[in-house]
Design a protein that fits this description.
There is one protein chain. The protein is of the alpha+beta class and 604 residues long. A six-stranded mixed sheet has the order 1-12-3-5-2-4. β6 and β7 form a beta hairpin. The longest helix is centred in the middle third of the chain and has 24 residues, at 334-357. The chain starts with a strand and ends in a 15-residue tail after the last helix.
């Protein structure tokens, strides 16, 4: 790393020539008109600008470069420096002070503008405290108007008018021949302008033309991980850089791929195809209409690839651990991505099918997105071995322990690698129970606090009720199935209405929203559920055309004792259904639940 102080004039030349460019992971970013005027004022006063940072390329950039906005640079130009911090400042100064085009900016409301920047000479040679007011921006036609554009305030559309108004066009400041020509016109207009120009040259032009920009240059040997970390720490745009964007620029800059195929590798296009195929078949993985990163994210996909790649490296003795840390993603070679991406796409499709078999079909009903990452990696490693009866049974047990034990609500960086290694060995019969299975605990009184979809266990019990054979109370011909859930508007519905519980059983009011008092039912069934169960069950029974005892059997498929509904005994209902739900949880986890009740500490 070195610290330098190049002249602003030289830096802007480098921008124009393409010697200084941006790494492609840098987002486009426009400064608003007010900030650009303040920036120009800073330069004209020779006040410190703030340090910019660049990466030396050594003649072979690791990222696909792109010019700063407005610079016309041949695509084949290889930059000497990549600008990591200072994009907005350098872009604004280049467009305002060197380019012979209006500056692309925005107003305070974000509306696009194209402006020319001038300096009012009379104000500029006055007090430095007035310098901000001396910087003027005008529309593309160089005419300021007011009163709904009916009245011209300032017309700078010709050189003569500029000189008459004593407003110097700042895009000439580094163009000596044109600046001298403008100077001649200015003094020709009025002999008194000679002295004014001398003061303007001393207090403004000399400052701009000699302005130094403090600059940190990182060596070309700086690692990708370090580049990413440095960028995020110094970037003044305030928008975090993600690994996918950095890899996009890295893969696009892979010259071997360009030489082989004749074009850049477009990671976003590859991810779009994969995600589109997955979500069209399995909506639980996201909704494309909500954006490419809705649901299963690019980061999830890259993590799963990193898990498989490092697992392979460990098997070959080339690595000591399985990992999917940020560093592993940044070091993922393009060749390995191209090789593994189809396997992981197939693996996530298998995951989508697995979730469907668990009766989880909508993104909103997915307990944990993060748990899909190691599951897809395991599928990619094992392939068809996951399709055996024993393999699927163990995957299901692992999955439900993760969900009901709420194991994926915190940091997952160390859990993912353990899951992959331990689950692979367990399915192959080469190891003991995975940590996710042994560490998961479901405490009985957790049922009382599961009241919203914010909890993975809440969503899990909802899915398990469907999976174990719940029959809808309107569409009574067969148990609910994954294919019917969306079409019939199946959702979590209250069994005993909360106002009724609060009024009749006030001691249980806090538990009215618990998952114990909820069950999956269709929208059509919910329309008939007005009042207490004793009332609405009669209506639903009549609509079904079933005998009372048969309809009670339908109600019982929801792990409910029907008599507790008919008799309005919320306390007995809650106690009985809690026990049945705990049995359901125990069955899914393949292990005991833990009780905190004073009367029952034996567990199940």
């Amino acid at each position: 790393m070195s610290l330098d102080s190049p002249k602003l004039k030289e830096l802007l030349k480098q921008v124009e020539s393409g010697s200084l460019q941006l790494p492609d992971f840098q987002r486009e970013w426009k400064w608003d008109d007010e900030r650009i005027r303040a920036l120009i004022a800073t330069v004209t006063l020779n006040y410190p600008l703030g340090v910019v940072m660049s990466l030396q390329t050594g003649g072979a950039t690791p990222f696909k470069p792109r010019p700063l906005s407005g610079a016309q640079v041949p695509e084949t130009t290889v930059p000497d420096l990549l600008l990591l911090d200072g994009q907005q400042r350098m872009t604004s100064l280049y467009q305002a002070l060197r380019r012979d085009q209006p500056v692309d900016t925005v107003d305070a409301r974000g509306k696009d503008l194209r402006r020319w920047y001038y300096i009012d000479i009379a104000k500029a040679i006055g007090s430095p405290s007035d310098r901000d007011e001396a910087i003027v921006s005008v529309p593309e036609d160089r005419t300021l108007r007011r009163n709904f554009a009916r009245e011209i305030v300032l017309d700078l559309s010709t050189t003569e008018l500029e000189c008459a108004a004593a407003h110097f066009p700042l895009n000439l400041v580094f163009d000596t021949p044109r600046m001298n020509a403008w100077h001649r016109e200015f003094v020709k207009a009025d002999e008194a302008n000679w002295e004014i120009w001398s003061l303007f040259e001393e207090h403004v032009l000399n400052h701009v033309q000699s302005f130094d920009v403090p600059m940190i240059n990182l060596k070309s040997s700086t690692t990708m991980d370090a580049v990413c970390a440095v960028f995020e720490r110094v970037n003044t745009g305030g928008v975090p850089l993600n690994v996918f964007e950095l890899l996009t620029a890295t893969y696009a800059g892979n010259q071997a791929h360009v030489a082989e195929t004749g074009e850049y590798y477009r990671l976003p296009d590859a991810w779009h195809r994969i995600k589109s195929d997955l979500t069209s078949a399995y909506p639980v993985l996201g909704r494309m209409e909500a954006g490419l990163e809705d649901g299963l994210s690019s980061s999830d996909f890259l993590q799963s690839i990193a898990l498989v790649r490092t697992w392979e490296l460990k098997q070959d003795g080339r690595s000591s651990s399985v990992s999917c840390k940020r560093r592993d993603l940044l070091e993922l070679p393009l060749d390995d991505f191209v090789r593994l991406a189809p396997r992981l796409a197939e693996a996530f499709a298998w995951v989508g099918g697995f979730l469907e078999r668990q009766c989880i079909v909508g993104w909103a009903d997915l307990p944990y997105r993060t748990q899909l990452v190691p599951l897809a990696a395991v599928r990619a490693v094992l392939g068809d071995e996951t399709d055996t009866a024993a393999g699927e049974q163990r995957i299901e047990q692992w999955y439900w322990n993760g969900v009901l034990g709420e194991m994926y609500g915190g940091s997952t960086e160390s859990r993912f690698p353990r899951d992959v290694e331990q689950l692979v060995e367990w399915i192959r019969g080469e190891g003991g129970d995975p940590d996710t299975v042994t560490e998961a605990v479901f405490v009985s009184d957790r049922l009382d606090t599961l009241s919203t979809r914010n909890s993975a266990a809440y969503k899990g019990i909802y899915a398990l009720l469907i999976k174990q054979g719940a029959v809808d109370w309107y569409y009574t011909e067969a148990p609910l199935s994954p294919g019917q859930l969306v079409a019939r508007g199946v959702d979590v519905r209250l069994i005993f209405p909360k106002p009724w519980v609060t009024k009749v059983h006030p001691a249980y009011g806090a538990r009215a929203n618990s998952i114990v008092n909820k069950t999956p039912l269709s929208y059509r069934a919910s329309r008939s559920m007005t009042g207490p169960p004793a009332a609405y069950l009669k209506s639903l029974m009549l609509e079904s055309g079933m005998r009372p005892e048969w309809f009670d059997d339908v109600v019982a498929t929801h792990l409910i004792e029907p008599s507790t509904l008919h008799e309005g005994e919320f306390e007995r209902f809650y106690r009985d259904r809690s026990k049945q739900l705990l049995d359901l949880v125990r069955s899914a986890m393949g292990k005991r639940t833990v009780f905190r009740d004073a009367d029952d500490t034996s567990g199940r």
